[in-house]
Design a protein that fits this description.
By secondary structure, the protein is of the alpha/beta class. It is about 30% helix and about 20% strand.
């Protein structure tokens, strides 16, 4: 049984020396919170299971070297989704001054009471802008599921799972059928931009779904490396898909990459020594202009947290072409309210729907449709 205690920022030792275990996004979030809310606390270094070096101005020490840090710290604070395993491992090594940062401090799907209070006006505004009661009910559920200690989700795993999802899928989500395609008016779509191609399976779905599709421009920082040969053959043989090995951003630049596979993210603040690579980006406005794209009918964005940047780089295109949009609103903690409000401030004469497509709290999509297509 894991006995690693969960603690909040307020429970850190006064004027304490706290080593943060981790160097991923969770650790960076906790580090920033400590620096802003507990300036009395000193962070001697970061601790990591597999790597060493330097990150955000701090030395990174490999866990196997922990013995050399004796006397330099008062507490090891684990900031990782794998805190249970890390805590058990440290305990088996006889390390006693250990606690884990409460997930509410770093988990993008868990909101503290203070988080909820701070965001209430924005959450209410998003609910009000949704088109139907079905949309509002889904959004209200997704918000309530994010509340700390919500009975709607099971938080024992790394990612909170929705309780009784089979029933929820048949009732609350029963009117939904296909991610990225629900609510979309398909006949007018001749040219679309699809960001987040990954393994190409969505490209095939779009080819089947849009009867008048002439060209699908796909964007994927990893290029075609994750696409199976048989899928690539179908994409190529269609003659209607071009995959561009670029990320979408607000402008053209080179940005460090973090992670791999479907979880690869663009992070312009990431030091290159922590990067798993880098990628050239382009904005939608720049791409449309440089490639002579005459119309854009549908934009689908699943870009691992870069959605706001991509939308910022698409302002001229959206204003000129009034495309339908499907935008993922779950990659960052604030996305569930910030991205809908961002879109609503940008768009005129659009209506909004929402869909959710997973037994966890990821895969939530906001659909924005021009009124003239659905009136």
């Amino acid at each position: 049984m894991n006995t690693t205690p969960l603690i909040t920022i307020d429970e850190l030792p006064e004027n304490g020396r706290v080593i943060i275990y981790g160097r991923g996004q969770a650790a960076m979030t906790v580090l920033e919170t400590i620096r802003t809310q507990r300036p009395d606390v000193t962070i001697p270094c970061l601790l990591d299971s597999f790597s060493e070096g330097e990150a955000v101005g701090l030395r990174v020490v490999r866990k196997t070297e922990l013995g050399k840090l004796a006397g330099t710290y008062d507490l090891i604070l684990i900031a990782s989704a794998w805190w249970r395993d890390i805590g058990a491992n440290l305990a088996s090594d006889g390390v006693t001054s250990v606690a884990a940062a409460s997930p509410v401090l770093w988990h993008k799907y868990i909101y503290s009471e203070a988080d909820m209070t701070h965001a209430k006006g924005k959450l209410d505004a998003v609910e009000a802008m949704l088109a139907t009661d079905e949309d509002k009910n889904i959004y209200r559920f997704m918000v309530q599921a994010r509340a700390e200690n919500s009975p709607l989700v099971n938080t024992d795993g790394i990612t909170p799972g929705i309780v009784d999802f089979v029933q929820i899928k048949e009732t609350l989500l029963g009117h939904l059928t296909t991610q990225y395609l629900d609510f979309v008016v398909r006949e007018p779509v001749k040219t679309m931009l699809h960001a987040g191609v990954f393994d190409g399976t969505d490209c095939l779905r779009f080819l089947d779904a849009f009867p008048n599709l002439e060209m699908l421009h796909g964007f994927e920082p990893q290029g075609t490396g994750c696409i199976k040969p048989e899928t690539m053959d179908r994409i190529t043989n269609s003659g209607r898909v071009q995959i561009h090995p670029q990320g979408l951003w607000s402008s053209s630049r080179t940005i460090p990459l973090m992670g791999s596979g479907p979880f690869t993210t663009l992070d312009p603040t990431l030091p290159m020594e922590r990067a798993t690579g880098s990628i050239d980006t382009v904005s939608i406005d720049e791409f449309v202009a440089s490639h002579g794209v005459k119309s854009v009918d549908y934009i689908c964005l699943d870009v691992e947290g870069a959605e706001e940047h991509a939308l910022n780089g698409a302002r001229q295109t959206i204003k000129a072409h009034r495309p339908q949009l499907a935008v993922c609103i779950y990659h960052k903690k604030k996305d569930i309210y910030a991205l809908p409000l961002f879109l609503d401030a940008m768009l005129e004469g659009y209506i909004y729907h929402i869909g959710h497509y997973h037994n966890q709290l990821n895969e939530t999509v906001l659909y924005a449709l021009p009124e003239e297509l659905v009136s």
